[in-house]
């Protein structure tokens, strides 16, 4: 949670319909999700389930077709384009999947951090202090003077996280940041990210990688643009949306071939039965 106890981001009934040549594509069909502050949340789900569409809205790079997204207390869908850009600059860090997409070839590690901090309005002395701490935490101190071309893929992604986090944004959004790394490098990067979330940063990361999902405090699993389930503290939770809809796990769904259920309330829960 943030110091004020509020989550870093809250999405309610998010709908995103893309316009493709073949017609409208319903990428998000009513997503309710809460991103707790100071935690690592993984967004998982098969290809095309809506992970990037959700992340782009959380990162203020795109707007929902309907529903609302609040980040750091700002209701993004109500903001003008200028205010949205300002919120993105100040409060949101972004990490792309491809290491070299995150970095400028002519800037050293240190220069990346200085520039990102200035962009977020952080004073020079504070930026230096935070930059040093981030480089140290991510094992990059000896690389501060190097250009990205001299860094390994894993080091480049760690620098990308440092750059996304300097200036203390409310939310760092990362789209499959481990997809181009081998498993040993992935483990190293995740250890660094876990360390950063322990120091108070909130990270939301789309991933296909089980290692990355296992490192998360919360996993939100998407299926066809809806939240299929969440995993928190090792427990798998179904999500009841605002209109009372619950997605059953695949195995449970098999029990209802007619897609109709009898709902029985019992003393300690609710029972679903096949009516046939
Ligand atoms: N700009 C766009 N224009 C048209 N359709 C889009 C656009 N962006 C995404 N889509 C479609 O929306 C759906 C969800 O895509 P999205 O990229 O959000 O899923 P994803 O879970 O991130 O997929 P992947 O794991 O393959 O990256 C897909 O059917 C995709 O083709």
From TrEMBL:
It holds the Pfam family ABC_tran. The keyword Nucleotide-binding applies. Coiled coil: none annotated. GO terms for cellular component: plasma membrane. It comes from the Bacteria. Residues 9-249 form the ABC transporter domain. PANTHER family: IMPORT ATP-BINDING PROTEIN (PTHR24220). This is ABC transporter related protein. It comes from Geodermatophilus obscurus (strain ATCC 25078 / DSM 43160 / JCM 3152 / CCUG 61914 / KCC A-0152 / KCTC 9177 / NBRC 13315 / NRRL B-3577 / G-20).
């Amino acid at each position: 949670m943030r110091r004020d106890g509020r989550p870093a981001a809250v999405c309610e009934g998010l709908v995103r319909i893309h316009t493709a040549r073949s017609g409208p594509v319903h990428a998000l069909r009513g997503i309710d999700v809460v991103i707790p502050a100071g935690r690592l949340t993984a967004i998982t789900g098969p290809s095309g389930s809506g992970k990037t569409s959700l992340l782009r809205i959380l990162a203020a790079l795109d707007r929902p077709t309907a529903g609302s997204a609040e980040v750091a207390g700002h209701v993004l869908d109500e903001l003008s384009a200028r205010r949205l850009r300002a919120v993105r600059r100040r409060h949101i860090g972004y990490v792309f999947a491809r290491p070299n997409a995150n970095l400028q070839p002519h800037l050293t590690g240190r220069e990346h951090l200085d520039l990102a901090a200035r962009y977020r309005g952080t004073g020079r002395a504070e930026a230096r202090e935070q930059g040093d701490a981030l480089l140290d935490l991510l094992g990059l101190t000896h690389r501060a003077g190097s250009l990205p071309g001299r860094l390994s893929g894993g080091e480049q992604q760690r620098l990308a996280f440092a750059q996304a986090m300097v200036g203390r944004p409310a939310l760092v959004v990362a789209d499959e940041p481990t997809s181009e790394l081998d498993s040993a490098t992935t483990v190293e990067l995740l250890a660094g990210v876990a360390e950063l979330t322990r120091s108070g940063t909130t990270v939301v990361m789309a991933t296909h990688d089980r290692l990355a999902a296992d490192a998360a405090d919360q996993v939100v699993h998407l299926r066809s643009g809806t939240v299929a389930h969440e995993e928190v503290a090792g427990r798998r939770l179904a999500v009841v949306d605002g209109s009372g809809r619950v997605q059953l796990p695949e195995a449970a769904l098999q029990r209802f071939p007619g897609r109709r259920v009898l709902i029985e309330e019992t003393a300690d829960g609710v029972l679903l039965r096949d009516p046939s």
